[in-house]
Amino acid sequence: MATQLNPPASISLGDFGIMESVSKCLTPKLDELRGKKILFSSDDKTLVPAEGWGARPSSYCATTITTFRPIRESTMVAAIDSSSIKLAETEEGALYAIKCGVAMAYGGAALMHFKLGPMLFYLSESTVFDSELDDRLARLVLADSDVARRLVRVRAERAIQHELSSHLRNSIILVDGSLRTSVFEDRNRSMAKIAENCVLHKNLIVGISKNTKLKILERAGAPLAKVPGPAYIEVDVIIKSLVRGSIGSNLMAKLDKSTPVLRVDVVGDRDQALGRLLGNDPVACGYPETLRLAHHISTFTNTEVTCLRSHVLNSYDVTELAADDIRHTLLGSIMV
């Protein structure tokens, strides 16, 4: 009769010393948590304390607070935003879609808006290696769809920003995000070229970030919470020491009373740029209305995605393959 193998009667996690091993390579230090102000996180949301972290000063930036007012000098404000998605894959590459929004304001009121796209781009070895990307970056674009989406988005946004900077005069070009160079840029439409165009044509360029991964910037901008109106603090020292390729002046600013403090980058005169922005673009909840509108224009809807899929099936003689959800197959659908 075969010997029956029985599992051990009981196994304890303590038998392996796992917790002790983890604690040795990463000390918990939970005792330092006592008495701290705390903000619980959410993976899909950017949260900030409603009343700020407090007035703890930062040694990395100037403590001078500069206030500014709306400048009622009629100026065109043009805001640009975009979004990109991976629509499909082939054995050799992937198909991406980009959608861009441009919104304009003048004299304190919305003027017009445009939707560009959706536009389709197929990235494969032949298309990527024919570009000016170096071989290492080209391989990364082919291997990582998030990097590829970033490439498509950066190039489309830079093309629009470059044309606006070349054709507008005495205007403000408003960008979603920070002003910095990117490895994905086309050399003829780089952020540096766009900034150069703005100087030549007397345009101002302003980049506004809805959130920042640099926690020190939140601390640097904390004193602005007590200022009753629009104001900014310079944070050039922090940005230039931590981030490569930053362009223009770096600020933490709030655009209205009792509104969030945002990172703002400016190429040109800071007070003129922010003052004319407030004087020509309606600001709701501390954020320019043109940027808000450009964001909504550029967001993909489910209907658009469905239409794009139908367009590809009907126009390019492709064969749709049945798909398996690997994650669902491996993990099942147990609801927790």
Automatic annotation (TrEMBL):
Residues 75-300 form the NurA domain. InterPro entries: NurA_domain. This is DNA double-strand break repair nuclease NurA. It comes from Nitrososphaera viennensis.
